[in-house]
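Appendix C reproduces, verbatim, an entry submitted by the partner laboratory led by Prof. M.T., so that reviewers can inspect both the input and the predicted structure.
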Amino acid sequence: MSLVETLSSVRPGIAGEVARPRRVRGLVNEVMESLATSIREGAIKPGDKLPTESEIVARFDVSRTVVREAISRLQANRLVETRHGVGTFALAPAPDHGNFRIAEVDFDTVSDVIALLELRISLETEAAGLAAQRRTEHNLVAMQDMLDAFAAAIEGASDAVPSDFQFHMEVARATGNRHFADLMNYLGTMIIPRARVNTPNRAPEGRLIYLRRVHGEHESIFSAIRNQDTDAARAAMRTHLANSKDRLKRPQ
């Protein structure tokens, strides 16, 4: 039985025998929970490659954005890992021994999101500096791809959360230190504030201008890393994350 067929057998009602309205906010959870169940129950075994994005889109009748967000949440729960250019693979579910973890419940309020941004400022500022020292041409291509995807997404009325997260992930990978990437992979797209708080709608300048400004901040980070300017890369990342923090503090 193929993995796509396995998903059908685990959650046969997902596609629905009878058409019914599907709440957009529930689609990501629907896909994520089905895949998570398959992994936890052993239908998808550790090391198995998950179905392709296109297969999952067709199976659940959802958009690619929904699938990417579901995969990112599985990454955050350490149920899968994505190998750039290869695919996404199931991991063995880890027992809960009370170790450090950041769960979705830890992002319930604006204050929670700000607290995580403070952690990210420490982590990602140094990551940007190391990326500037160690980046390869492959890293630069991957970062540029995410910048292009972000620009296309915001012009297409998307919130661009997946490409935003992947840009930060590529910066972490460019450090050459797997622990930066592992931690980013663990956190997943929950680290992007607008995945939890609708910051574009809070922005007085409007959604598109707000997201274009975020894109410009990403470009500044990329430019410094490309030029191997360690201090500028650290400063650009710190400015970007501090701006995110300040934007969250604005009164609605």
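The longest helix spans residues 110-134. Additional entries are available on request from the coordinating office.
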